[in-house]
Amino acid sequence: MVSINHFASDTEAEHALIRQRLASQGVTAHTARHWAEGGRGAVDLARDVVRLAQSGAELRFAYADADSLWEKLRLLATRTYGASA
Fold first, then answer.
1. DSSP for 11-52?
2. What is the pLDDT of residue 58?
3. Of 25, 49, 57, 71, which one is least surrounded by beta carbons within 10 A?
4. Burial of 45 from C-beta contacts in 10 A (0-12 / 13-18 / 19+)
């Protein structure tokens, strides 16, 4: 499952493309609008998180709690955004 943060400048076509590419890999995507709509903007996302948690799905974090701030940033940049190490 992926949560896509929605920004005012985003287009529906951009979000549709992201959802389409993720769906082709068997991944569900939710558009999160909580920054603009509060909790109401993330209800579907929250429900899916609960559903996955209750199903016993494997949860993988991008970094360990014990990692330093710089290591967390490095791991997010390289693993999530494809930055060079």
1. -HHHHHHHHHHHHTTT--EEEE-HHHHGGGGGHHHHHHHHHH
2. 83
3. 25
4. buried
Q: Measure the CA–CA gap between 41 and 54, rounded to whole angstroms.
A: 22
Q: Identify residue 82 by its one-letter amino acid code.
A: G
Residue with tokens 């992201």, as numbered in its chain: 18
Q: Tell me the per-residue pLDDT of 37-71, one tens digit each, with 9 for 90 and over.
A: 888 989 999 999 899 889 988 878 889 999 999 99
Mode of pairing for the β-strands spanning 29-32 and 2-5: parallel
One-letter amino acid of 83: A
Q: Residue 63's closest CA among 48, 78, 53, 44?
A: 78
